Task: structure prediction
Amino acid sequence: MKILFWLIIGIVALFGIVIGIGILKYKKEIKGTNPEYIIDLFKEKAKDNNISLSIHHNNEKWVEINEKKLLPLASTVKIIVAIEYAQQVAEGRVDPKKEVSLQELDAYYVPKTDGGAHKAWLSKWRSEKDIDHVPLSEVAKGMIDFSSNANTDYLMQILGLENINRVAESLGITNHEPLYPIVSALFIPSRLMTEKKLSKIETLQELKQMDLNDYRNWAIAIHKHNLSQPLTSQEKQQLIKVMNMDFQKIWSDRLTRSTTEAYASIMRKLNSKEFFHKNVHEHLDPIMEQLMRNPINREWLQHAGQKGGSTAFVFTMAMYATDKDGNQTELAFFANDLTLIEQTKLSCVMNEFQLKFLKDSEFRKLIKSELAHL
Result:
């Protein structure tokens, strides 16, 4: 009995050591990552067509890799919603001061599905004072700054999906799939299981075979249903049990897709301050350019804005900047089918990569020389 006891202790200790070594190696690999990692990643994966990049600098197409490849946008798509919001406010169709109930937003929120984004946004308000309403303009800011999916789906309802889906065309972009409710799409598997009495395996097969238009229509139908019959806490908790990695992969792959070519073009329109009317920028810039609240950024930038996105498999970023010397940069980066290590490394280095490109002429030359031929 004593031998068995010590054998178990030994196995547990060994298991702990192996895990500990693995964690240390993981941390060491992540810690050693630098901006040049993105160059290496493109050299390794560019031929897979699951990674794309468009960088424009002072009206020159600096780098274009797989720029016409449709890839999932994740939360970067929220830029389109922000543009439609600003246009409707500028036209007087929507009141930015309209008070929105936090309880109303809660109907669109499902815990543990957005990386804590909506909860973090709520904490910002509740840490200042005990409030239960916020202006619509702050809902829009929370969609971009905190990447709240709940705020996004609420704005889709207020602004109208048809209006939002006309934005890309108005910008001269044809390679952009329609938007649909992000949160509601998460419930498609559980709704199929309930209505068609399917097992998880059968539901997975049904989803894989489902036409993309049908998938979007399911998401929209669920969105409308949840408005009239709000989800209970129990129904939201049940979603977490259903959404395994297979279902998450389908949800991720079927998110609205576009190209880095298209988003570099959108960034150019935002950066120039000439495409949209001044009244639109009056409401759009405070949402898109929250970077400029930082006094350090104001020291060297005239203006800058960005929006990123991620899932367990996707990492995206779209940004624009004009520095105080008048240099203008637009960047769009999309990647799909990433490993956990790749995802984590990109999260760690993307900001540094952008800053180095904006500030370091030698780094810009390196990017062009290393990536131009891919």
Observations:
- The chain has two domains: 34-73+258-371, 94-256.
- Confidence is low (pLDDT under 50) at residues 14-26.
- The chain is about 60% helix and 15% strand.
- The beta strands are 51-57, 60-65, 71-72, 99-101, 133-135, 257-258, 301-310, 315-323, 328-335.
